[in-house]
Amino acid sequence: MLKFPGERLNNGGHIRNVLDVGCGVASFGAYLLPLNIIAMSLAPNDVHENQIQFALERGIPATLGVLGTRRLPYPSRSFELAHCSRCRIDWLQRDGILLLELDRLLRPGGYFVYSSPEAYAHDAENRRIWNSMYDLLRRMCWRVVVRKDQTVIWAKPLSNSCYAKRGPESRPPLCGPDDDPDVAWNVPMKACITPYSAKMHREKGSGLQPWPQRLTTTPPRLGEIGVSVEEFQKDAQIWHHIVAEYWKQMKSVIQRNSIRNVMDMNSNLGGFAAALKDQDVWVMNVAPVNASARLKIIYDRGLIGTVHDWCESFSTYPRTYDLLHAWSVFSQIEERGCSSEDLLIEMDRMLRPEGFVIIRDKPSVVTHVLKFLAALKWDKWSSEVEPSTDALSKSEERVLIAKKRLWKENSV
Ligand SMILES: C[S@@+](CC[C@H](N)C(=O)[O-])C[C@H]1O[C@@H](n2cnc3c(N)ncnc32)[C@H](O)[C@@H]1O
Q1: Helix, coil or strand: residue 36
Q2: pLDDT in tens, 29-79
Q3: β-strand 398-403 against 381-385: which pairing, if any?
Q4: Are 317 and 52 in contact (CB under 8 A)?
Q5: What share of the chain has pLDDT > 90, as a percent?
Q6: What pairing do the DSSP bridges indicate for beta strands 321-327 and 381-385?
Q7: Which atom of ligand 1 lies at the shortest distance from residue 68's CA?
Q8: 23 CB less than 6 Å from ligand 1?
Q9: Which of 263, 381, 409, 410 is spaced 20 to 30 A from 308 at the CA atom?
Q10: Domains in the chain and their CATH numbers?
Q11: What's the family (predicted)?
């Protein structure tokens, strides 16, 4: 329908990050993955609650999430395409606040693919909803790109020009200059349009390279977080080396194709995930709340991620990840007075039997964690080393890698 050159769905790498709201068992995301498009598939914790579990068991990125009252935990301008297939969301509620949240998350020129009875049914009620949605989205400066069969595809504007042409009393209003569109942890949604930064407006877009170049070229928003190009390049180099060392350490115990769903619990600039690009895995990059500004770099690089406070439990089902990487996460939560034992239990909940944890932290943290390995049954195999120091080492560090056993493996 979008008529990209050669009918390539990823439009030559320009469509990479997708948000699928109301994803079911994430079949849309599963279809896109081999096309080098990565979808953050969302389903709420409702009567369909085990959908996300199915998706993750299929090895497809997915998380619990709902378009409700709070912003989704992603920075602005993260996705090239949003998708709702029969997601049964009332998009007109509360002055269109849920569409305005999608508007915040979509990149300049981003698409909204909507496949729902309102887009094609001819009864009076569906016609009324369609007309109201069409009117609202027109006021938001979105345009219909194509409407065919059961689906309509809208596109957002590329710059602020259309907003500037709206009258001062136009609804929905533009968000005020004091609104930071990138803060997304426990932030109430607002019924306003997020205008583009001056740079995006000038450049009429995000300034992104297509995938896979965007993984390694300088992310357009790097300057916003105060990181230099040299620091970014150094970070990428160091993580390539660290990840190779991790794999060497696990080589004797890792089975082929046994690692698929990976979480980097403190993703920083995404160096850990970038170093895994050629492995058949996907990485959920997690930016702790105090480093959440860095999450936009993850999305600029064509990776996916979320914000999280590791003093709380994570929005996923039990035993859904094969590998958890925790770099300085324990020392950070301890500084905030949260319990490292609680975090160990949460990691154990998320970790699949036979899965691995990699904990890179201060020696005192690693010594503390070692005491719990047997109780957690993370003692199928473990290895502890002192890593070589590099520009990322904050202080003396140790690396502990442990493998979780099946609880009843001796009795079967
Ligand atoms: C009929 S299923 C469609 C599943 C899938 N998209 C498909 O086409 O097979 C609708 C899904 O939307 C989800 N949903 C409903 N309201 C939602 C909201 N406000 N935010 C996120 N998901 C929502 C429901 O939980 C359900 O999983």
Answers
A1: coil
A2: 999 999 999 999 999 887 776 888 999 999 999 999 999 999 999 999 999
A3: antiparallel
A4: yes
A5: 85
A6: unpaired
A7: 19
A8: yes
A9: 381
A10: 5-203 (3.40.50.150), 215-411 (3.40.50.150)
A11: Belongs to the methyltransferase superfamily.
- Give the residue, by CA position, lying nearest to ligand 1 atom 11: 22
Q: Give the Cα separation of 89 and 99 in Å (integer).
A: 10
List the residue whose alpha carbon is closest to atom 10 of ligand 1.
87
Cα(123)–Cα(66) distance, integer angstroms: 29
Model pLDDT for residues 258-306, shown as the tens digit of each residue? 999 999 999 999 999 999 999 999 999 999 999 999 999 999 999 999 9
DSSP-derived letter for residue 294 is: G
Q: How far apart are CA 74 and CA 77, in angstroms?
A: 9
283 touches ligand 1 (CB under 6 Å)? no
pLDDT score recorded for residue 410: 64
∠ CA 68-267-252, rounded to 5°:
125
For ligand 1, is residue 99 a contact (CB within 6 Å)?
no
> For residue range 360-369, what is the model confidence (pLDDT) as tens digits?
999 999 999 9
Tens-place pLDDT, residues 96-152: 999 999 999 999 999 999 998 888 888 999 999 999 999 999 999 999 999 998 999
CA 88 to ligand 1 centroid distance, Å: 6
Atom number, ligand 1, closest to the C-alpha of residue 47: 25
Which atom number of ligand 1 is nearest to the Cα of residue 46? 25
Reported as a pLDDT band with limits 50, 70 and 90, residue 411 is low
Token reading at 114? 């909507």
Output the DSSP codes for 166-202.
S-TT-SSPBPPTT--TT--SS-B--SSB-PPPHHHHH
Candidate from 54, 87, 91 with most ligand 1 atoms within 8 A of CB, to mutate: 87
- Ligand 1 pocket residue status of 46, Cβ below 6 Å: yes
Specify the 3-state DSSP secondary structure of 20.
strand
Closest residue (by CA) to atom 12 of ligand 1? 22
